[in-house]
Amino acid sequence: MQKIVFEHVTKYFGGHRAVNDAHFTIEEGEFFTLLGPSGCGKTTLLRAIAGFYRQEEGSIYFGAQKINDVPTHERNIGMVFQNYAIFPHMTVYENVCYGLKARGIPKKEMEQRAMEALELVELTHLRDRVPSDMSGGQQQRIALARAIVIRPGLLLMDEPLSNLDAKLRIKMRSDIRRLQKELNITTIYVTHDQEEALAVSDRIAVMSEGQIQQIASPQDIYAYPQNQFVANFIGTSNFLEGECMANGEEATVHLLGGEFRLRTNKTYQGKVIFALRPERIKLQANQSDNTLAGQIESVTFLGEKASYLIRLAEGMLIDVQEHAIEPHSLRKEKDTIFVNLQLDKTTMFDQSGKEVLY
Ligand code: ATP
């Protein structure tokens, strides 16, 4: 169990900054996720931690030890990758023992630790099988057992569930989370899948173009995105432009032809962009305060909820979601409806995309 510190870490490929000034700390025992779109630098940062890449600027510490010049095999890291990277010709048991043998662990202890690891990933009954005739989920469990059996100070996982089907991904991610908590291993997890990140992490770092955009708990990342990139990348947002005047007590907002008043202790005057989550817009049949008229343009049934695209009087389209509906009582296309915007629970950004009001 180890704390990981990044001190102004920058990694270049040619003139391109793949990771730009990463400066943050991962706490002991934390499940920490690097999340972002393809090419944002997640894997590069993970590889710098593993020692596969050397950053050009800055330092990485494991606890108090600076590891810039420590080779990969001396970093005591367990790793799990998307493509499993297990030996197809060895049995499950031999795969798990591999790292222990390489470390010269005595036979008896090796047996005991390998069986413990197999038990943790629920694979003891398959110990003598070879991975080539096993499912993707089982192969990933072998990779996980092999990573934890060495008792690493740090567990690194790079898109470990990407090759699995949707149902298995959900099962495996909760298994990984359980295992990580049981073993209390500091874990850094890379994914481009926001739902996966929200489900497993203690904290998430959202990355874009090599830069960390925000680090926060899943709940805070969703509820208080710090900039427009995060609001757009995590969940769905309706971005609505308006004018805001906030005096430290109250804000008056002009938006979509309506005037809204919110409580706030901030001061601001100028153009703003609201990132309004679909569940922060309520639909109602009748007009009241803070409502705008619109027409339902399309209805999408999503199982436990329905999504409605609504065209407002000004021509703007917004996405609204309603939960716990009866499948046979969906609202209908072309119906006139009133939308109630819950702006007081919504983040506002200035024209540059930086958060100004919540
Ligand atoms: P993905 O989810 O697609 O794996 P990522 O967020 O992990 O993406 P990286 O693989 O870290 O992104 O890549 C970050 C940037 O660095 C990209 O622009 C990529 O093209 C570039 N890059 C990565 N590895 C190399 C390399 N070995 N040589 C040159 N450029 C590289």
Automatic annotation (TrEMBL):
| Catalyses which reaction(s) | ATP + H2O + polyamine-[polyamine-binding protein]Side 1 = ADP + phosphate + polyamineSide 2 + [polyamine-binding protein]Side 1
Q: Indicate the enzyme's highest-level EC class.
A: translocase
Which superkingdom does the taxonomy of this entry point to?
A: Bacteria
- The ABC transporter domain extends over 4-234
Q: Name one GO cellular component term.
A: ATP-binding cassette (ABC) transporter complex, substrate-binding subunit-containing
Q: What is its EC number?
A: 7.6.2.11
Q: Which UniProt keywords apply?
A: ATP-binding, Cell membrane, Membrane, Nucleotide-binding, Translocase, Transport
Q: Recorded GO terms, molecular function?
A: ABC-type polyamine transporter activity; ATP binding; ATP hydrolysis activity
Q: Name one Pfam family in it.
A: ABC_tran
Keyword Cell membrane (UniProt): yes
So what family is this one in? Answer: Belongs to the ABC transporter superfamily. Spermidine/putrescine importer (TC 3.A.1.11.1) family.
Record NCBIfam families: potA
Q: What is the annotated role of this protein in its UniProt record?
A: Part of the ABC transporter complex PotABCD involved in spermidine/putrescine import. Responsible for energy coupling to the transport system.
Subunit composition and interactions: The complex is composed of two ATP-binding proteins (PotA), two transmembrane proteins (PotB and PotC) and a solute-binding protein (PotD).
Q: Return the protein name.
A: Spermidine/putrescine import ATP-binding protein PotA
Provide the gene name from the record. Answer: potA
